[in-house]
TrEMBL record:
Belongs to the gamma-glutamylcyclotransferase family. SUPFAM superfamilies: Gamma-glutamyl cyclotransferase-like. This is Putative gamma-glutamylcyclotransferase. One of its GO terms (molecular function) is transferase activity. Residues 6-94 form the Gamma-glutamylcyclotransferase AIG2-like domain. It comes from the Eukaryota. Keywords: Transferase.
Length: 100
């Protein structure tokens, strides 16, 4: 069985929310805190959710350098996601999810 790993940096970081979205107890998953280096987190204009962008793009938009701590996105790495879990996550996220 194919398993997928995904990095979450918004509400899906919270196990209770993740379990509700994937419609199971998540017993097959492993979660750990993770850092995404050289990325920045931003509010998405007109939306209630955040987005991330490579620091190089953020630096150009902001026309300034950022502190190292601001060039890191804190999140959760979830491993062991099934194809069904990912399908539910895709439905929840709509077309906003972008795999890296």
């Amino acid at each position: 069985m194919v398993q997928t790993s995904l990095f979450f940096y918004g509400t899906l970081r919270h196990p209770k929310i993740l379990k509700r979205v994937i419609r199971n107890n998540g017993a097959h998953l492993q979660l750990c805190s993770a850092l995404l280096l050289e990325y920045t987190r931003h509010k998405v204009k007109g939306e209630d959710y955040p987005g991330i962008a490579p620091y190089s793009a953020s630096r150009k938009l902001l026309s300034c350098d950022l502190e190292e701590v601001e060039r890191t996105v804190r999140g959760t790495l979830v491993t062991g996601l099934t194809a069904q879990d990912v399908a539910y996550l895709d439905f929840f996220e709509g077309n906003a999810r972008c795999p890296f």
